[in-house]
Amino acid sequence: MAKDKPTKLKARMPRGLADRGPAELGSTRAMLETIRKVYELYGFEALETPFIEYTDALGKFLPDQDRPNEGVFSFQDDDEQWLSLRYDLTAPLARHVAENFDRLAKPFRSYRAGWVFRNEKPGPGRFRQFMQFDADTVGAPTVAADAEICMMAADTLEALGVKRGDYVIKVNNRKVLDGVLGSIGQVASDDIARRLSVLRAIDKLDKFGIEGVRQLLGEGRRDESGDFTKGSGISEKRIDGILSFLSLSENCSKMSPEQQSRHPLFDLMADYFEADSVGAEGVAELREINTLVRAAGYGAERISVETSVVRGLEYYTGPVFEAELTFEVKDEKGRPVRFGSVGGGGRYDGLVGRFRSEPVPATGFSIGVSRLASALSYLKKADAAPDYGPVVIVVMDRDQTAHYMGLVATLRAAGIRAEMYLGNPKNLGNQFKYADRRNSPCVVIQGSDERAAGQVQIKDLIEGAKAAAAITDNAEWRESRPAQFACGEAELVAKVRELLDHHGVPHGAALG
């Protein structure tokens, strides 16, 4: 009787995660460096926190739950304490500041970049692991800190190549939204769960539109897959009041300049609240932020007060911000795509204070790195320089491996990316195919005749591809010469560098 063959493991990736190749990693690395420079220009300094925190320190989940893993990935340590992968970069910062409060200069200005994790249902563009890049000011109660964050967000997007007019930093205030909820009289101030349900519904305005938000504020909404999201249970009359307020800034933007001067947005907002209400305080803070950013030269096309901005996380206590891309592009199938929000943040005066006896004011901004990187890829010019790979040294004689390795070392010492072919060298054609797949700008060839003469052959793959594309028949191909030339071994670095410079391929400086 034949024995059953062992079953091979199936290579598969968990849903909501992604592998990332060299092109994406390279563009992300360059993007992170640009963001870092802007953040440091504003006086922020680097900080790194661990991926794992005590679950109760995340500020979102109750420590007495049997398994506090709704929204986060959690596990129990050997001392029976619950640990979780960080949900964002803000809660770990709050823990760090509280733990080191007395030795930190305040206001404490820091930036952090890293992976965060969400234990949520994955979907198109919705991942369980993604990267954020945050900047926060802790210990500054003035809204000038909020205004500065908004200005830095605008400067960051422009430094990354987003043109003015292709983005807007939208600003609102949680106090204003709390005032709206108080004014409708159907959401008690101590009914936290219901208030959060309403805020999360409003936060979906850009995604689902007015009708979708109306459903989420009411009985609920069923999506295209059939999944049903329970609504907040607000009456239709109260929903009309909320939606009317959310539309204020949009309606105001449609007014003529003369009408706007007679009915300023801030006056229209203030009309919703009593003079001593929380909402009125929020409107006053928005007025001040508006004054500060305009005085610094940031117009409404860059930073704008928008009544529809919410931000979904519940720890925000004051001004909230949303960085939105406004340009539209076409995807691979020619369909219009608008990226919308690529970052956001706000004031969270209660988060650090959970660890201390006194309140600690804080405000910050977070960029969604992966989403912004995807958007930036659409802004690249069609004739942008390709992302070339390393120079490849082909192996003609296996017993000369040490000599080929010396050629590679010579190029690397000169700051030129290079590698020796490490596969089976028997088939020379496969080596050239490998170089093509690596998008190499050129290959270096040396057989026994060249070695005896102290020479190498350099084949220009970029020029060769251009010539091949221009050839129309076999006769022309036979009469043409590939872009290949000989040079002395001593000239190798100079000739390769000359080739790279000719094609605009970047290369580094010499090592050491």
TrEMBL record:
It comes from the Bacteria. Signal peptide: none annotated. CDD domains: HisRS-like_core (cd00773), HisRS_anticodon (cd00859). The keyword ATP-binding applies. Residues 1-23 are annotated as: Disordered. NCBIfam families: hisS. It catalyses: tRNA(His) + L-histidine + ATP = L-histidyl-tRNA(His) + AMP + diphosphate + H(+). Homodimer. Pfam families: HGTP_anticodon (PF03129), tRNA-synt_His (PF13393). The keyword Lipid metabolism does not apply. PANTHER family: HISTIDINE--TRNA LIGASE, HISTIDYL-TRNA SYNTHETASE. This is Histidine--tRNA ligase. Residues 31-386 form the Aminoacyl-transfer RNA synthetases class-II family profile domain. Keywords: Aminoacyl-tRNA synthetase, ATP-binding, Cytoplasm, Ligase, Nucleotide-binding, Protein biosynthesis. It comes from Ancylobacter defluvii. Belongs to the class-II aminoacyl-tRNA synthetase family. One of its GO terms (molecular function) is ATP binding. L-histidine binds at D88, L89, T90, R118, Q132, D136, R311, Y315, Y316. GO terms for biological process: histidyl-tRNA aminoacylation. It is found in: Cytoplasm.
